[in-house]
Write a structure and sequence with these properties.
Layout lengths: L13 H4 L3 H13 L3 E2 H8 L3 H14 L2 E4 L6 E4 L6 H24 L8 E7 L1 H4 L8 E7 L4 H11 L1 H7 L3 E6 L1 H9 L3 H9 L1 E5 L2 H4 L10
Parallel strand pairs: 5-6
Antiparallel strand pairs: 1-3, 2-3, 4-5, 4-7
Helix pairs in contact: 2-3, 2-4, 2-5, 3-4
Length: 220
């Protein structure tokens, strides 16, 4: 198999700066923090192994986008704000954060006029756990009383059509009524146990609270 020819580093430095996910994750941590961090702090915040963090820092420091201060175990790192690409890289991560916030806001606002019938609304599954991929669905769970459940689910699905196209995500909406919740909880259903463990609640009570409390409604 033919090997890919390398590009000019001077002309295309982003190939090296953003070339591997460890570089991106190290840069994201440093851009968000805005100050000095140790390698172990970066590793913890980026959820990277120490070896991957170390390799990322070596490459990024060589590229000039990361600065180091101190020596040995006292060595600390920061984003080099004097690098010509630093402001653009910070802007990329800011846009990334805003996009995810916009996705959660779209789900939160999805019920629209049906919000008064919603008991609980959450995101669960791979996105809530943080291990999703490009082809993963955004799993959305909603609980409403049996009379209004169908209308609530349809409202959320309709409300997410435009945001999902604009923000590039694929929603999958599951609706439950309070009897469903109590049955799933009583039976120790594995799917429900995962929901309870992973759920990021956007409105109403946490899923596990609904199985032992009377229904209530919230204003969206």
């Amino acid at each position: 198999m033919a090997r890919t020819n390398p590009e000019s580093t001077i002309r295309y430095p982003l190939d090296r700066i953003l070339g591997v996910d460890s570089n991106v994750r190290v840069l994201r941590v440093l851009a968000r923090h805005g100050g000095l961090l140790s390698s172990s702090d970066i590793s913890h915040r980026a959820r990277l192994s120490k070896s991957s963090t170390r390799l990322g820092l070596i490459g990024l420091e060589a590229a000039g986008i990361v600065q180091a201060e101190g020596s040995g175990y006292n060595r600390l790192y920061r984003l080099n704000v004097r690098h010509d690409l630093s402001s653009a890289i910070e802007a990329l991560f800011t846009a990334e954060d805003r996009r995810f916030t916009a996705i959660l806001d779209a789900v939160r606002n999805g019920p629209g006029d049906q919000a008064r019938h919603v008991e609980s609304l959450w995101v669960y599954g791979s996105v809530a756990r943080g291990d999703d991929h490009f082809d993963s669905d955004l799993d959305v769970g909603v609980v409403a009383d049996a009379v209004h459940l169908k209308a609530v689910v349809e409202a959320i699905r309709a409300g997410l059509v435009i945001p999902s196209e604009r923000l590039a995500f694929s929603p999958s909406v599951v609706g439950l009524d309070l009897d469903d919740v109590r049955r799933l909880s009583r039976d120790d259903d594995p799917w429900w146990s995962n929901v309870v463990r992973d759920a990021t609640v956007l409105a109403g009570r946490r899923p596990e609270e609904l199985s032992r409390a009377p229904g209530f409604a919230f204003s969206g």
